[in-house]
Amino acid sequence: ILMVDEKGKNMKCLTFFLMLPETVKNRSKKSSKKGNSSSSSSKLPPVCYEIITLKTKKKKKMAADIFPRKKPANTNTTAVQQYHQQNLNNNNTIPAPNWQGLYPTIRERNAVMFNNDLMADVHFVVGPPGTTQRLPGHKYVLAVGSSVFHAMFYGELAEDKDEIRIPDVEPAAFLAMLKYIYCDEIDLAADTVLATLYAAKKYIVPHLARACVNFLETSLSAKNACVLLSQSCLFEEPDLTQRCWEVIDAQAELALKSEGFCDIDFQTLESILRRETLNAKEIVVFEAALNWAEVECQRQELTATIENKRKVLGKALYLIRIPAMALDDFANGAAQSGILTLNETNDIFLWYTAAKKPELQFVSKPRKGLVPQRCHRFQSCAYRSNQWRYRGRCDSIQFAVDKRVFIAGFGLYGSSCGSAEYSAKIELKRQGVILGQNLSKYFSDGSSNTFPVWFEYPVQIEPDTFYTASVILDGNELSYFGQEGMTEVQCGKVTVQFQCSSDSTNGTGVQGGQIPELIFYA
Known about the structure:
This protein has 522 residues and is of the alpha+beta class. The protein has helices at residues 21-33, 63-66, 74-89, 106-112, 139-145, 147-154, 171-183, 193-202, 206-218, 225-234, 238-250, 252-257, 266-274, 282-299, 306-313, 327-332, 342-353; strands spanning 2-4, 10-17, 48-53, 122-126, 133-137, 163-166, 373-376, 378-382, 394-401, 405-413, 420-430, 433-444, 450-461, 467-474, 481-485, 488-491, 494-500, 517-521.
């Protein structure tokens, strides 16, 4: 046998002398007839072989050494992309007989089998009836990637089926899981990540499940926090649950007004209404519960009447702390909503006004909410006869945190010349994009204290990214200003770093100026 390399050069020549069975039989008969033959002559000669090396010896190389990880030649690139696109799109088998030569590593060759009918020994019909998709699989690969698949195909109760129906998993999510098992690649999208997490949990693919949770945590916001809270409880992911509560507590009004709030289940609704640390007005909680009830009526195919809304809310209605509302909110909102009975409305009015208060089924104690933290970046403050003056110029500073927080507002210095009122336009930006802004007024009493100015809603701040805090003040009086500024401040469990901002045109920087405090929830 002559072995040649890809260039046609001789590598080795192997010569085998084989003893055929018939020849062995004939020789044995001949040997038995010769009685005077010695015992040594009756033995059969062993199989002989000879290796003749036609080239100088070289150190053996692995596939990775022979085929370094680099872009293949143009002719091969087109073929590789073509085959890869085929197996992603439509389960076609690879037509080329030598496709293995296009992929230098076992990982890449294994990835070719993803969503490919070539050598497939099982098929999955995935999705609910009417939206199913038939996907090919390879038992060995699947069993290596999932203990559930291993038990399904090689366990004691394994069933030898050519087709397996999976109606409770979305096709896109199942494909995402298969891609991880075959290709060692995690490909997640916002609209399928929850379904992918469900598939990863069902088939016990823990690393993919962890990646889904990390994806959800990084994309967590007030708009989807309530839905993710419901799902995190279903999937038993306590870390994700805690992150959801952090967002819901700090940005409660945004979360309650989001469309996602109406999609939660009844158990999650109850847990939110019970929440002691919701940072929201009670009238907002009340209106959110009514919005949920209206959508729940649609889910149950009920007419969204007042009676049916109250019916679907059930005992959860009494978790709304209506007596803790401001009197104006109750009189103009809850009392006229129709959701309360006449006796309930009368009793709550008496609760507000009477010395002897009636007993109520509603919780009357106000929620505690969240206590804001203050990060003070100056070690001292001062005032001078010509500083700190405001003529429509911007005071700005950049900051970054090491943990997710929610900026509720800024603490600002006031007048150094007695009582005065200032108009303040505050703004929070990230890479030039405005995340929050508000225009308000505050009154200073002439002391060196700081005075809070709030955003309409707390702004979510991600860790390890610099944000720009800015304020434009309008006032006739000079104010105090900070001195001996610090570049890093430890505030509870949160570390805040400061650096100068190019937006600052009124002199504020790290060492001195305005915006002495960041007010946040953590």
